[in-house]
Specification:
The protein is mainly beta and 263 residues long. The protein has one domain: Lipocalin (Beta Barrel), CATH 2.40.128. The strands form 2 sheets. An 11-stranded mixed barrel has the order 2-3-4-5-6-7-8-9-12-13-14. A two-stranded antiparallel sheet has the order 10-11. Strand 5 and strand 6 form a beta hairpin.
Length: 263
């Protein structure tokens, strides 16, 4: 009987402590603003009907255009399964730049898998793209503070308008980034098993216009407004106790231009 009572007490205590983890509220850092830009060039080739291959390079700037953020090298493929659906996948090598070191540092590997549905309504084409994005880090991190391999589901709704007798195609888009394996904060990670949290980490609204220079040369001009919401979790290394937990908010204004050579 004594063992049963002790067992019940232990279960209640564990449940109470677990519920207490949900009550941990983050502090909030002041919201920041940053103006960014992207410059990209790519090559697209359609070796067979409905299958396109693409390779590209992209440079990103941050800190009000004052420093280099990263450099992307990408390779991908897309297959149009039918009139309304297409499947795609791409690989991106991300080389981050550390301005304090004056060197490229800690490359990451990113894999995207895409499913896109589209339909035309008059001269407007509506599309919904679901992208499963996985980013593999090459440095070591505390998996209770941030995932070693981050997984995000990106959902993008886009509307393009085909203007008659012009080479311009304006568009609007809205996108959500939803985390799939963000670590859940606990009072002490040595006392609780690793569990995951899900939340929207980015809201994006964008406007742009595609310009068909010639049959083979295309340009795309765009502006993105992002609201980024992330969490900075910091534990004491040896003891595992929660040291700091803050919500970080940032408004990002991104201006970009991309060039594509379509064979």
């Amino acid at each position: 009987m004594k063992r049963v009572v002790l067992g019940i007490v232990a279960v209640v205590a564990l449940a109470t402590t677990a519920l207490a983890q949900d009550d941990i509220q983050p502090g909030v850092h002041p919201t920041t603003n940053d103006f960014r830009s992207r410059v990209e060039g790519s090559f697209e080739w359609e070796p067979i009907k409905d299958l396109s291959l693409e390779a590209g390079l992209q440079l990103r700037l941050k800190n009000d255009l004052g420093s280099v953020d990263c450099f992307h090298t990408s390779f991908g493929a897309e297959y149009e399964a039918c009139k309304y659906f297409s499947l795609g996948a791409d690989y991106i090598l991300i080389n981050g730049y550390k301005s304090d070191k004056g060197a490229w540092d800690k490359p990451r590997h990113r894999l995207n898998v895409n499913l896109t549905g589209s339909v035309k309504v008059g001269r407007v084409e509506l599309s919904l793209r679901e992208r499963l994005q996985t980013t593999f880090r090459t440095d070591s991190v505390n998996r209770y503070e941030k995932p070693q391999n981050e997984m995000i589901l990106r959902s993008r709704l886009m509307a393009e308008y085909n203007i008659r007798h012009t080479k311009w195609t304006p568009y609007l888009l809205f996108e959500l980034h939803n985390t799939l394996n963000a670590p859940k904060v606990v009072a002490n990670y040595k006392e609780f098993p690793l569990s995951y949290d899900n939340y929207i980490t980015r809201y994006r609204a964008g406007v742009g216009a595609k310009f068909r220079v010639t049959r083979n040369h295309r340009l795309d001009f765009y502006y993105y407004f992002d609201y980024d919401r992330g969490y900075d979790i910091d534990y004491k290394g040896n003891k595992g106790a929660l040291k700091g937990y803050y919500q970080e908010n940032e408004f990002r204004h991104t201006f970009g231009v991309s060039y594509k050579f379509k064979l």
